[in-house]
Amino acid sequence: MRRPQVARSLELALALLCVAGCAAIDPEVGPSQESCGISPTPASPASNAGYGATPSSGYGAPLQPSPSQRCTPDAGDPCDDCESRYCCMTRLACYTDPVCTCADQAMDTCLAATDEGGAVPSSQAARCWSAFSAFGTVEQARVACERTWCAVACTVQ
Amino acid sequence: MRVRVLLWVVLASAVAALLSRRAANADEERTFAGSAQLDYHLVASEPAAVAAPGPGTTFEGFTLETAVKTAVDISEHLSANVKVCFGCHGFELDMAYFDFRVVDELNLRFGRFSPSFGAFNLRHDPANHMTSDKPLPYDMGRMLRKGDWNNGVLPSPFPTNGVEVNGTHWIGNVAQLDYAAYAVMGFKNDTDPNPTDFNFQESHLPYYLTSDPRPESGSRLALTVKTGGAADMTLGASGLFGTYDPENRLTYAIVGGDYTLRIQHTALRMEYLVRRQEFDTSNPDIFKYAIAPAGGDFFAKHGAYVEVEQPFTEALDVLGRIDGMYRVGNVSNVPVGSGNETPELSPMTYRSSVVRETLALAYSFERNFRLKGSVELWEFSYADADGRETELSFHLGAVGSF
Q1: Cβ separation of B329 and A29 shorter than 8 Å?
Q2: How far apart are CA B291 and CA B196, in angstroms?
Q3: Which residue of A has its CA nearest to B298?
C-alpha cells in the first residue's frame, strides 16, 4: 500500500521537475519587428562581404530608411521639416533601427486614435509619447531632441 | 559516522603525504610533447556565405593549430603542466597549473586550465580526434555562420584561471568514479554596453582579468565501467554556473551529459549540452523581437553530437558524425563586441537550428603523423542573403604529434 504512494509521489516530483525544467529553458519573445514591414535588404552580390553590406559585419544588411524617413527639407509636415532640420541624427538613428521604426509606426497609430489626432496636447497624446519613449534609448534620444528643438511643431509632451 | 571516518582517512592521508615529501628536484620526471594541425577548409558555396574573418563569417582556407606542452612530476604528489598553443587568436597559454595529489581520490589543481566539463574536453587537441574540426556544441570558430551563432554551446578548450578539486575512486577492477568541482574566472563580456552573449574574443586578448569578480563554479561526475580489455563504457554529467557581466547581474548555466561506449576498436560517443543565458534587456532597440513581459530575458542554446569511429585497417580510420545546435530566444541585431553601434537585422529567428552530417577519413602514414579529410553537409533552418539553407564544405588537413 505504501509502495504505490511513494511511486506516485516520485512520478509527480519528476513530472513537476520536467515542467519546471522545460520552462526554465523555453524563453518567450514578443512580435517580430519584421511584422512592421521591415525586412533585410539582400547584400550586393559583388560585395563579397558576408551576410551584410558592411565588410565583416556578418549580420543582415543595415536597414535603409525610405525617402520620407530621411532628413529631407520637404519631408511633409511641420514636425517632419523641423526634425529633419534640427534632429537629423536621432531621426536617422530611429529609422535605421528596427525596434524604433516599429515604435514610430505604433505612435503614429496611437496619435491618430486621439481626439485631435495628436495635433494638440492631451493626456491621450501624452500616453502615446510615453509609450514611444519606453521602447529604448534610441526612442528617448529622438524625443529629447524633438522636445528641445521642435516642441511646438511636433506637439511633444 | 561513515562520512566522519572517510574524512579522517582523507585528512590523515593528506598529513602523511605532506610529511613524506621528498627533497626538491629529487627524481623529477619531465615530459615534453606537442602537436600541430594544418587544415584547409573549402566551402563550396563561396563567396555568398563566407568572407574574411570577423563576426558572422566563416573561416575558409588554411588554419593552423599547434601546441607544445611540458609536464613535470616534481614529487610523488606534486606535478606541473604548462601548455602553449598557437591558433587563430595567436599565442595562448592553454595550461599553466600545479596538481597536488594527496591520494587518487583527492587532487588539488590551481592555475590556468580548462575546467572539467563533458567528455570532448579531454580530446580537444587536434591530435586526439579524427576530424579537422570539433563537434558543433564545442565549436570555437570553424563552423559556418559562426558569427550568427557566436560559436558553440561551450567552445573547447576554454582555459581560465581558478582552482579545481578532482579525483578518481576505483571500485574493484571493473569501475572507476571520477569527480571534479571547481571555481574559475569563467566567461565574460566587459565591453558591450548591453551584453547579450559571451564575448569569447575577450578571453583571448592579453587582458586576462575580468571585471566580474564572482567566480564561475561547476562540477563533473563520471562513471566508467570496464569489462576486461575488450570494452568500456563511460557515463558522465557536468554543470557550471556563473555571471558574465561586470555587475554580476546576468547569469548563465550550462549542463550536459555524455556517453561513450568502446567495443574492441569501435567507439560510439554522444553528448548533449544546453546553455541558458540571461541577457541585458535595458535597451530593447537592439533586439529583433519585442521583449516579452515574462521569460523574455534569456535564451537557450542546445547542442548535441553522435559519432561512430571505426578503424578499417591499422592505418585507416573512418568516422561518421551527426551534430547540431538549436537556439531558442530573442535575437540581438548587433554582433557581440561591436558596441551596439550598428543595428542590423540578424538572419536568425526566434527558433533557429543547424544540423551537420560529417563523413571523415584519417590515414596514418606513421604512428604520429596522420592525414585527415572530411566532407560536411550543413542544413540551417534559416536562409542566408542568397536564400540558401544548405551548405557543403570540405576539410583536408595533416596532423603530427610527438
Answers
A1: yes
A2: 13
A3: A27
Out of B48, B51, B328, whose CB is closest to A26?
B328
Taking one residue from A and the other from B, the number of pairs with CB-CB distance under 8 angstroms is 156
A139: chain B residues, CB-CB within 8 Å? 285
Longest dimension (CA), chain A: 85
Angle between helices A137-149 and A123-133 (to 10 degrees): 130
Res. A91: pLDDT tops 50? yes
Q: Residue A43 is nearest to which of B52, B148, B385, comparing CB atoms?
A: B385
Among A15-19, B329-333, B376-380, name the one with the lowest average pLDDT. A15-19
- pLDDT, tens only, B61-111: 888 889 999 999 999 999 999 999 888 777 888 899 999 999 999 999 999
How far is it, in rounded angstroms, from Cα B168 to Cα B94?
A: 23
Containing B88, the helix (H) or strand (E) segment is none
DSSP H or E run through B248 = none
* Cβ–Cβ below 8 Å for A27 and B329: yes
> Using an 8 Å Cβ cutoff, are B401 and B33 in contact?
yes
pLDDT tens digits along B129-178: 899 999 999 998 888 888 889 889 998 888 899 999 999 999 988 999 99
Which candidate in B298, B345, B352 is best for mutational testing of the A interface (most A CBs within 10 A)? B345
The grid coordinates listed for B30 are 619531465
| Cα distance between residue A8 and residue B359, in whole Å | 46
Asked casually if ipTM beats, i.e. exceeds, 0.85, the reply is no
CB-based contact A81:A91 (threshold 8 Å) = no
* Helix extents (H) in B121-261: 146-149
Q: Is the dihedral of CA B143, B147, B149, B155 positive or negative?
A: positive
> Do A98 and B343 lie within an 8 Å CB cutoff?
yes
Chain A residues 54-73 with CB within 8 Å of chain B: 54-63
Distances from the Cα of B90 to the Cα of A110, B84, B93, B200, angstroms: 54, 10, 10, 14
Using the structure block, give the residue that is written with the C-alpha cell 503614429: A108
> Taking the model in full, what pTM does it have?
0.75
What residue type is A122 in one-letter code? S
Contact B347 A135 (CB under 8 A): no
| Mutation target vs A (from B289, B352, B380, B389; most A CBs, 10 A cutoff) | B289
Say which residue the cell 513581459 belongs to: B293
Length of chain B: 402
